[in-house]
Amino acid sequence: MIVPVRPPRLSFFEPHPRAMMLIYDAQSPAPRCLRMFLLEKQLRLPATTIDVMTGENRQPPYLAINPAGQTPALRLDDGTTLAEAVAIAEYLEERHPEPALIGRTPEQRAQTRQWWRRVELNITEFIHNAYHYAEGLARFEPRIPVAPEAADGLKRVARDRLQWLDGLFGPGPYLCGERFTAADIWLYVWLDFGESVNQPFDHGLPRIGPWFERVTARPSAALSRALLPSSRA
């Protein structure tokens, strides 16, 4: 009698000879940005969850995929891995251009990147690091250099720069006028995260306040809180 031999079961951390696209998701703001992007795109991709709370993203199996140890990451069809939520979003827009969340023309794409850059460099990075140095200190102190004395100053800068951004906000309803874009997603998710970690923003800002409520009303805002359905067995 011939007994069939089962092929060895591959881990999600091992490159498959015929690898398929796979998102490494996590309960964290940057992965949520990507989830909201996917929801707006109406894209469904296989995913697996990385438990960042227990430090799974800092263990050798995941570091072999993304040496930076950050989430999200995207395994491509050829088995290679792309990291950084912004780069992943750009890649997916190239592969799936509609609906356009970055832009259909060079001018639209440049405008989106302009606002995206303003948001990331002036606001969300300060929210991010302030969390590392204050509310998230116990979690991050063993992993990265921290500066607890800088936390209050970083929060103050984020608030100031958000007021600055409010002054730049055009006729709306979104950062890029009539177009809802990845820049809106990035700002929204991080402001929503800030609300949960003792970094509330001024909802009385004349443009950002109504904008935030407008984005909150989009179905993708609530749905993006949930992790992607995991393909992990």
Task: Considering the chains and any ligands shown, give keywords for the structure.
single chain, mainly alpha, four-stranded mixed beta sheet, 4 strands, 46% helix, disordered N terminus
Give the helix/strand layout.
Layout lengths: L21 E4 L3 H13 L5 E3 L10 H4 L9 E3 L5 E3 L1 H11 L10 H28 L3 H4 L10 H18 L13 H15 L11 H9 L2 H5 L10
Parallel strand pairs: 1-2
Antiparallel strand pairs: 1-3, 3-4
Structure in words:
The protein has helices at 29-41, 60-63, 85-95, 106-133, 137-140, 151-168, 182-196, 208-216, 219-223, and strands at 22-25, 47-49, 73-75, 81-83. The longest helix has 28 residues, at 106-133. Helix 1 packs parallel to helix 3 and helix 4 runs parallel beside helix 7. The two termini are 31 Å apart. The protein has nine helices and four strands. A hairpin with a 5-residue loop joins strand 3 (73-75) and strand 4.
Rg to the nearest angstrom? 19 Å
Mean of residue pLDDT values: 92
Helix share bin: 40-55%
Number of helices: 9
Strand content: 5-15%
The main pleated sheet reads as: 4 strands, mixed
Task: List how many beta strands DSSP finds.
Answer: 4
Low confidence ranges: 1-17
Name the helix and strand elements from N-terminus to C-terminus, one letter apiece. Answer: EHEHEEHHHHHHH
Helix/strand class: mainly alpha
Biggest sheet: strand arrangement = 2-1-3-4
Rough outline: globular
Euclidean distance between termini CA atoms: 31 Å
